[in-house]
Specification:
16 helices; alpha/beta; single chain; Rossmann fold; globular; 494 residues
Length: 494
């Protein structure tokens, strides 16, 4: 999957000059050996130039890790550490950074072998705050070589997401459809995160699409689509137009990404799209998302941003779904009750017209968009990819700017149940513990729109750290509270 960075973390050990430098040297070597034994050694780079004890050492280390192509930094307190030099290193490194500290190794070596990094981490964190420097600090940032190797490994997807956001351009087409103010949000917060945005008219897109008529690459893309759909290719007559549209979007990306490394798209899909283009873009959206280029529906810019973050963290396709409808009681009683440990209010159905990657559907068929076909000729609503979403772990989440330009988010780990939906579209039966309360006191109370991003796996821990790093206030990150833990807006007598 392309369109996401590969991260190399530069490990720089630091030492307070009144502590033995050998502590930091030997502990850094042990850390690198531990990481290389457990994980991909290409993820890390050991800075061999010096142990940072002074500002001069800091400059030397900074130049070395930059020359080595490191996109992320790990400041490793092998002992107490020089609070000024180590935080200056973080200040001048242009990329995501983390701080971790070495634990003491043995009760038999607590005189010359005691490093006091447990104490030094407190000074480091205070100095980071003094200088307004953002850095990732693990939940418990002190450990032996194996522990610290695990911390760096957990940092890698977080660093990928933070770096990617600073090099992302979102390309949008057209204003949101009528009655979709829920997808409208101020773009100022994008710039605060370092994200660029290029807003275009859907007329610009239509012009570009028409210029791709007869493109010699279309037959090859059609073959790819036929192979992917297999027996689900129920609308072969529409594939040529869909291939033309896919090439239009890819060429637009190449011509408009400018100086940015990564791209995501907030696309228009109705109401005039079908009658003018002659199809719906759902299947193309699913294909690009599967290739690592998330495409949101209904010009949902923050939905697109959320999808991109999920793609970078998981290294896998994501999707954007409506938090759509309740599970009927009879269906719950027949298919879920007694089989899975969920109440009726823990379950719901998430749906979209047909934008989910084929690899994330149990089976798929190319169909027409039933909702749109209620008011339009069926032949202009073809292009959806329908099927039940694959069962398994998921994370439902969203990053959002509010109407008054504040940034907030939500995260909930859950699962897609292996229950037939008996419905249409890209759809699944979802279960999230305490969903009913989460729905009322986070989603509704927080003013979140109906679209949620879905990553396939449990990534709540990583998403939480990314949201913290990019500046979402702690009280603005909602999650599904366990039973017995009351939301601030929850009626205590309910």
């Amino acid at each position: 999957m392309g369109n996401r960075p590969e991260i190399k973390v530069g490990i720089v050990a630091v030492s307070r000059d009144c502590f033995p430098e050998s502590l930091s040297v030997n502990r850094r070597k042990a850390l690198v050996e531990a990481y290389s034994a457990k994980y991909d050694a290409n993820d890390i780079y050991e800075c061999p130039v010096c142990i940072v004890e002074s500002e001069i050492h800091m400059v030397q280390a900074l130049e070395d890790i930059k020359a080595a192509g490191c996109q992320a930094l790990c400041v490793y307190l092998g002992n107490f550490g020089p609070e000024i030099s180590e935080t200056l290193l973080a200040k001048h490194f242009d990329g995501p950074k983390m701080f971790i500290a070495a634990a003491e190794e043995s009760g038999n070596n607590l005189v010359q072998g005691r490093g006091d990094a447990y104490c030094g981490m407190l000074n480091a964190s205070y100095n980071l705050q003094l200088r307004n420097i953002k850095a990732y600090i693990p939940e418990y940032p002190v450990g032996d070589a194996d522990d610290c190797a695990d911390m760096i490994h957990e940092f890698v997807p977080i660093a990928r997401a933070v770096y990617a956001l600073e090099h992302l351009k979102i390309i949008s087409f057209g204003p949101r459809p009528l009655n979709f103010l829920a997808c409208n949000a101020p773009i100022k917060q994008l710039y605060n995160m370092g994200v660029e945005i290029e807003e275009n008219s859907e007329l610009d897109l239509f012009e570009a699409f028409n210029k791709h008529a007869g493109d010699k690459r279309i037959p090859e893309v059609v073959k790819e689509m036929e192979a992917e759909l297999g027996a689900g290719n129920k609308k072969p007559e529409i594939l040529t137009k869909l291939a033309q549209y896919e090439l239009t979007l890819k060429d637009w990306i190449n011509e408009h990404k400018g100086y940015r490394e990564y791209v995501a798209i907030a696309g228009k899909c109705w109401p005039a799209f079908q009658t003018q283009f002659g199809f719906v873009p759902c299947y193309v959206n699913s294909r690009l998302t599967a290739q690592g280029i998330p495409v949101s529906c209904e010009v949902d810019i923050y939905g697109c941003l959320s999808e991109f973050i999920g793609t970078v963290i998981s290294g896998d396709a994501v999707t954007l779904l409506d938090i759509n409808n309740s599970v009927p009681k009879d269906m719950y009683q027949e298919e879920i009750q007694g089989k899975y440990d969920y109440k009726l209010t823990d379950t719901f159905m998430a749906f979209h017209c047909g934008n989910t990657a084929s690899s994330k559907l149990s089976s798929c068929e190319m169909k027409y968009q039933m909702i749109m076909a209620r008011t339009l000729p069926e032949e202009v609503t073809q292009g959806t990819l329908e099927g039940d979403i694959v069962p398994g772990d998921i994370t439902f989440f969203r990053l959002q700017s509010t109407a008054d330009n504040r940034i907030r988010a939500y995260i909930a780990n859950g699962e897609v149940l292996p229950v037939a939906t008996r419905s249409f579209g890209s759809i699944g039966v979802f279960a999230i513990p305490q969903m009913g309360r989460f729905y009322r006191h986070v989603l509704i109370e927080g003013g979140f729109p109906h679209h949620g991003a879905v990553a396939f796996g449990h990534y709540g821990k990583e998403l939480f750290e990314v949201f913290k790093y990019i500046g979402v206030p702690m009280n603005e990150i909602g999650y599904n509270q366990p039973e017995g833990v009351r939301y601030p807006t929850e009626n205590p007598w309910a």
